[in-house]
UniProtKB/TrEMBL annotation:
This is Regulatory protein, gntR family. The keyword Transcription regulation applies. It comes from Micromonospora echinospora. The keyword S-adenosyl-L-methionine does not apply. GO terms for molecular function: DNA binding; DNA-binding transcription factor activity. The lineage of its organism: Bacteria, Bacillati, Actinomycetota, Actinomycetes, Micromonosporales.
Length: 73
């Protein structure tokens, strides 16, 4: 079975947390440093996962403030 790239695994986990309501609309995601520690990876796969989620419209990045779950109302 092929190994799923870290960026896709992380993106799917965050997607699942958004879908379950663990991260609700407008909620701030954990910091980059916290996500790196949680997933046990370097910064690059976490950044890539967040970019995937931004492209999907699930999260929004705000310079200097963090990444937030998009309000999909």
């Amino acid at each position: 079975m092929p190994r799923i790239p870290d960026r896709q695994r992380i993106a799917q986990d965050i997607r699942d947390k958004i879908a379950s309501g663990e991260y609700g609309p407008g909620a701030k995601l954990p910091s980059l440093r916290e996500l790196i520690a949680h997933y046990g990876v370097s910064a690059e796969p976490v950044r890539s996962a967040l970019l995937i989620l931004q492209a999907e419209g699930l999260v929004e990045g705000h310079q200097g403030k963090g990444v937030f779950v998009a309000d999909r109302s």
